[in-house]
Amino acid sequence: MKVYYECAACYLRQAREALDMATTDDSLKMEIMEDIIRCLGERFRKGAASNQIGTDIHRIIKKKTDNNDPYYVQKEKCNQIAQEFLPAVEKILREDNSFENYLKAAITGNIIDFGALGLETDIEALIAETMRKDLSIDHSALLKEELLKAKKVLYLVDNIGEIVFDKLLIKKIKQYDVEVTVALKDKPILNDACLPDALEIGLNELAELTSIGTDSIGVIGHEFSPEFKEKFIKADVIIAKGLGNYEGLGEMDLYEKPVFCLLNAKCRPIALSIGVEIGDNVVFKLN
User: Fold this and answer.
1) Which of 3, 158, 185, 193 could form a disulfide with 7 if both were Cys (CB 3.0 to 4.6 A apart)?
2) pTM recorded for the entire structure
3) Domain range list for the chain
4) Could you tell me which CATH number the domain at 72-285 has?
5) Of 19-33, 95-109, 152-166, 240-254, which range is least confident?
């Protein structure tokens, strides 16, 4: 996805929040913010890839503060929120175990995102609201058709906490007699899920776990490790969670394979890009 004008303000808001979590040194914060503004001055222009700029900014913060995981405390909060709401979501799925409802449950987890929404957001209220909403774009029937033909599914996860709900959907997908590989970040960035986070909730019991080989926000094709690029190419179906993966996949060669995006349109640029309203839940075929 290409940047919209308001993405610049979002980058700066994220940078301020990340800096406040990464260090208490105000002098260092000023120095780093100067670097970030220079980065935006050089990179932010019409046609730039949105998730590449975001990745560069967060890498600057991690490197300059010597803090590899500024969102550590917030990630713990994400886990707590997910575990608190898991029984309620599981109850809904027991009452209606349709494939569409499992997709909605996974998208509900996509709400647990302080990077896109900000640290002051009432995540709990948004989760409850999101689970009740219908899908604004619903390509779930197309996804089921592709799963019936597939042997290998690559599932690109997004945030920690959210993967608790992804686990529910992955169990459902396994009923289609497919091999599922879950792709995680190699190192922390924002509140994205890494290998230890997936192991903690037992995702390895359902699927093969792999790293994309880097710490990008979403996916950036030219940064894939050779091993992950091979898995990407060999997958029959790709399921991508969240904003960053949607942004990055739109900039890539998808090798003529079906790619399905599951997300909540949490900001105006994402909503405009997809053609929905802010806050809408979508399951759509990207290509």
Assistant:
1) 3
2) 0.93
3) 7-65, 72-285
4) 3.40.50.10880
5) 95-109
* CATH domain 7-65 topology: Helicase, Ruva Protein; domain 3 (1.10.8)
| pLDDT given for residue 1 in this prediction | 97
Reduce the secondary structure of the chain to three states and give it as a string: CECCCCHHHHHHHHHHHHHHHHCCCHHHHHHHHHHHHHHHHHHCCCCCEHHHHHHHHHHHHHHHHCCCCCCHHHHHHHHHHHHHHHHHHHHHHHHCCCHHHHHHHHHHHCCCCHHHHCCCCCHHHHHHHHHHCCEEEECHHHHHHHHHHCCEEEEECCECCHHHHHHHHHHHHHHHCCEEEEEEECCCCCCECEHHHHHHCCHHHCCEEEECCCCCCCCCHHHCCHHHHHHHHHCCEEEEEHHHHHHHHCCCCCCCCCEEEEEECCCHHHHHHHCCCCCCEEEEECC
Bridge partners (DSSP) of residue 282 are 137, 263
> Per-residue confidence at 164, pLDDT binned at 50, 70, 90?
very high
Task: Provide the residue type at 151 as one letter.
Answer: K
For helices 99-109 and 140-149, angle between their N-to-C axes, nearest 10 degrees: 110
